[in-house]
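Incident log, support desk, overnight shift.

02:14 A customer reports that sequence design results differ from what the structure should imply. Their input is reproduced verbatim below. On-call engineer (initials T.W.) acknowledged and began investigating.
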């Protein structure tokens, strides 16, 4: 009989990954768990990223849990506020509120080898737990570049992921730095407000139209009354998005068709050849995330918008000096410069067996096994861990797959009262060798610089294949690939 620990499971993060884990733990009869959330309110990406125009570029009926489908989505692509409402409803309906520990930021997690449990330190105190599920995701740490002279800037400045809603952009001269998935959503929203909007573009991205529209009342009614229709709808979207992996992974030559479509979209929306030239991408489509938007190019064509492509030389008290030495006045700087995916865990001190440093393991590029477990870290599991990200389909599908695997592992550990399970080092190495081999010929390795790759050019983020393959390998916990220490 081991020493008494506070919890069977501590989940870190209350986004889709954390919520899915909590629901599936409850379904498995595991109720002694808490879900830590560093902020005073729960919800992940879709609570944090609340900039104007924030929305998901995966269709609503697919970007939701298979076990909590929603017939009443108002649009084909869900807006941030509707996604957040959905999340709240799911949390309440599944009785997760008592498990939430808000304002409880994880600071350290240390494995107790003798006891087979984890000691957790949070901003609100300490606790012990048999197992940990990290559901922190990899887009949680905004990346803000340090331009020369930035400290002298006298105006307001904020990142898209920490949008300062108290700043009134009406009549302001606004500089937006970055032109990725977030920028293309909020630029069309703020352009009509700003006196002047300078869009600082380092790389022109591939853009495809976003076929968004309101879901009609009759569609909602049908989806609500005829349940198989919901499944069919979801399946249709799934197949459509999943098919994109064929060109990204297996036949990058096919990308030329998508590129042609994107260039047609550009030509249709931007008649000015000089602007079109600036906006024409120079890498293979899909290498960076493809942007879905129908109102971004039209916004760039407005007389109060200037697309700046010469870089930023210096920031002054009330201006930005571009790479050509031209000084452009600015009142507000908005960073749409993405996230530090390489250091997604930040400074959290996670120590496994023998004091092994989790952050160091990631720096070394060891990856994980099935995106879920790491050698040296017994009883520690991840949702959306290394190489489970997608460039083509719904992350919720991956989250549900990974969760099934992790909850199966934890159920087994608890039921059999095992001291610990830890993936075998060789198993993890072979698995990652296979993954990296598959990633070699993909579009993501075709030469562009993207957040999919770390500073050494390794792709430790994306899943290189069909998502249903990931689902099949995470169907059941494969205990034979683990070092198992028997009863506590
Ligand atoms: P992002 O796609 O990484 O875009 C960052 C932008 O900032 C890029 O244009 C990048 O240029 C630029 N940038 C970065 N550092 C810079 C620097 N030092 N100087 C000048 N420009 C710089 O970030 P994001 O738009 O926040 O999106 C991040 C991810 O969040 C997306 O890829 C997506 O997975 C997710 N997201 C999803 C949705 C959705 O609809 N599902 C919506 C928003 C975000 P380069 O291209 O040259 O690096």
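02:41 Re-run completed on a clean worker. Output:
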């Amino acid at each position: 009989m081991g020493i008494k620990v506070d919890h069977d499971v501590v989940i870190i993060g209350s986004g889709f990954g954390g919520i899915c884990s909590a629901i599936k733990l409850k379904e498995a009869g595991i109720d002694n768990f808490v879900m830590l959330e560093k902020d005073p309110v729960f919800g992940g990406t879709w609570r944090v990223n609340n900039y104007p125009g924030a929305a998901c570029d995966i269709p609503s009926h697919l970007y939701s849990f298979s076990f909590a489908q929603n017939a009443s989505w108002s649009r084909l692509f869900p807006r941030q506020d509707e996604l957040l409402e959905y999340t709240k409803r799911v949390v309440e309906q599944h009785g997760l509120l008592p498990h939430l520990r808000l304002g409880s930021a994880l600071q350290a997690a240390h494995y107790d080898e003798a006891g087979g449990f984890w000691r957790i330190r949070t901003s609100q105190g300490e606790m012990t737990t048999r197992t940990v599920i990290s559901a922190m995701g990899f887009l949680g740490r905004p990346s803000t570049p340090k331009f020369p002279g930035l400290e002298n800037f006298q105006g307001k400045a904020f990142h898209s992921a920490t949008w300062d809603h108290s700043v009134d952009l009406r009549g302001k001269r606004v500089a937006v730095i970055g032109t990725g998935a977030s920028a293309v959503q909020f630029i069309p929203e703020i352009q009509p407000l700003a006196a002047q909007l300078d869009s600082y573009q380092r790389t022109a991205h591939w853009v495809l139209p976003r076929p968004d529209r309101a879901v009609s009342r009759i569609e909602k009614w049908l989806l609500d009354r005829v349940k198989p229709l919901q499944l069919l709808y979801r399946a249709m979207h799934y197949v459509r998005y999943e098919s994109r992996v064929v060109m990204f992974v297996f036949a990058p030559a096919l990308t030329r068709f998508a590129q042609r479509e994107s260039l047609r979209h550009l030509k249709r929306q931007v008649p000015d050849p000089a602007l079109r030239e600036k906006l024409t991408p120079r890498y293979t489509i899909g290498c960076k995330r493809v942007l879905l938007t129908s109102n971004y190019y039209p916004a760039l064509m407005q007389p109060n918008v200037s697309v700046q492509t010469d870089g930023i030389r210096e920031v002054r008290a009330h201006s930005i000096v571009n790479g050509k030495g031209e000084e452009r006045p600015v009142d507000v700087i908005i960073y749409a410069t993405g996230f530090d995916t390489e250091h997604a865990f930040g400074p959290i001190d996670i120590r496994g067996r023998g004091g092994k440093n989790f952050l160091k393991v990631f720096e070394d590029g060891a990856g994980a096994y099935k995106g879920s477990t790491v050698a040296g870290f017994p009883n520690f599991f991840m949702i959306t861990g290394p190489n489970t990200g997608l460039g083509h389909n719904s992350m919720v599908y991956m989250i549900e797959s990974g969760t099934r695997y992790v909850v199966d592992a934890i159920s087994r550990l608890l039921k059999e009262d095992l001291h610990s399970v830890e993936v075998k080092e060789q198993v993890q190495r072979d698995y990652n060798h296979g993954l990296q081999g598959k990633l070699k010929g993909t579009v993501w390795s075709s030469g562009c610089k993207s957040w999919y790759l770390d500073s050494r050019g390794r792709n430790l983020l994306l899943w290189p294949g069909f998502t249903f393959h990931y689902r099949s390998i995470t169907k059941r916990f494969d205990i034979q690939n683990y070092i198992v220490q028997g009863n506590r």
